Amino acid sequence: MPTSRAKIRLRSLCLSLLVASVVVTGHHPAAAAADEPAEDGVGSIGDLVWFDDNDNGRVDSGEEGVGGVRIVLFRDSDDDGIPDRSGRVDDTTTDGDGHYRFEDLGTGTYRVVLPASNWTTGPLRGCVSSNPTNPYPTDGVDGDDNGVPRRGVIATGPIVVDGGADASIDIGCHRPDIRLALAAGAVEDFGDGPGRLVTIAAELANVGAVAVHAPQLSVSGSGFVVDDKDWQPDGPLWSTTWPDTLHPGATVELFVDIRPSGNSESRVQIAVTDAETSLIAPDGRTLAPAGVAPAEVVIEPPARPLGASPTPSVEGAVAVRRPDPPASPSLPPVLALTGVSHTRGVGLALVSIVVGWSLCRLGAQPAAATRRRRSSP
Q: Which of 102, 106, 140, 179 could be bridged to 208 by S-S, CB 3.0 to 4.6 A?
């Protein structure tokens, strides 16, 4: 058992340590206890997810909130900037005006996170994070962007909850103007029958505000085949790629040669199947133009149906016709034999033939002499 002198020394040591603690830290243990919230679970976090149209990181007049955005609240107990693995607290969805709120929060450090699903199939598809971003959400500034892209999501910096309400946690998302326009038409038509060569021109224009790299076009349809080395077969399609960058306001024209088949009209559809920009969404996907309307060209049926004879199409050409078959040689006239017997008729016929033949010979000789005279000098 300690002696009374030892007990006095122990009490003096404890008192000295307590005094030293107050001098060094400036806080008394009882005062620290008084700083704790009187009741745990009364804090809240909010407030807005919005479309930052001009990408300036500020909520400006006329800019709209985004409804239907999924938001998850995590704890960050070690304050390392990464949500705790098992620290998921709650999730919610923004209302029609883009507002959200988490309530009944205990004391601690939290982070607001927008999952990748908001960009793959959700209302933020085609968006990027606003720039610039304020990574310090609890600095007391409202109406600025507090979301930072990281690991396929957008997350805020640490938010310390100590029993109060913080309605200044806003996250901005910018929708870049990525738009292409496509038009097409037949520019040359060679021939008038099936299998003739038809050249189609496709005009691709960048009508947005973001440069597009290496756009790819495809040709599909019915009643024709593609006869062009610059277009490669790709399953049921033919495709080609413009290898350069299409800057805002620029237009490029691509040509494709086709050969209509059969006696019906040909329908040629041209579409943009792929294009990329230098913008990357928070989920890691490269942004591309969406919803480019395809163009269709209808080639009329051939003027000369399959199996018909060709029609000269060159001015001044002479049509070649097959000559008529030669006429049968004429025979000398035969006397009409009526009312005589068969035997006598035959005899008279023979006499008539001999007489007629002799007369023809006599009549032809002067003509022959005449021709010979005309041909002589």
A: 179
